């Protein structure tokens, strides 16, 4: 199991937090996603054999938020 922290831009409210967490948790291989709204980050625990960073970034971007590199 690996952990990565993504810097997510554009989140400002509880709905944003729910949208990003929900999108990340639906990615196959993600065990847990937790958003820190104040820090503007999403910490994701995932199985490296089942998913990768690009799939997680795409899930967030599909919700209308940007992932900083």
Automatic annotation (TrEMBL):
Q: Which GO terms describe its cellular component?
A: cytoplasm
**What keywords tag this UniProt record?**
Chaperone, Copper, Cytoplasm, Metal-binding
Matching CDD domains: HMA (cd00371)
Q: Which GO terms describe its molecular function?
A: copper ion binding
User: What's one Pfam family the UniProt record gives for this protein?
Assistant: HMA
Name where it mostly resides.
cytoplasm
Q: Name the PANTHER family for this protein.
A: P-TYPE CATION-TRANSPORTING ATPASE
Q: What's the protein name?
A: Copper chaperone CopZ
Which PROSITE patterns does the entry link to?
Answer: HMA_1, HMA_2
User: Where does it localize?
Assistant: Cytoplasm
* Superkingdom as given in the UniProt entry: Bacteria
Domain spans labelled HMA: 2-68
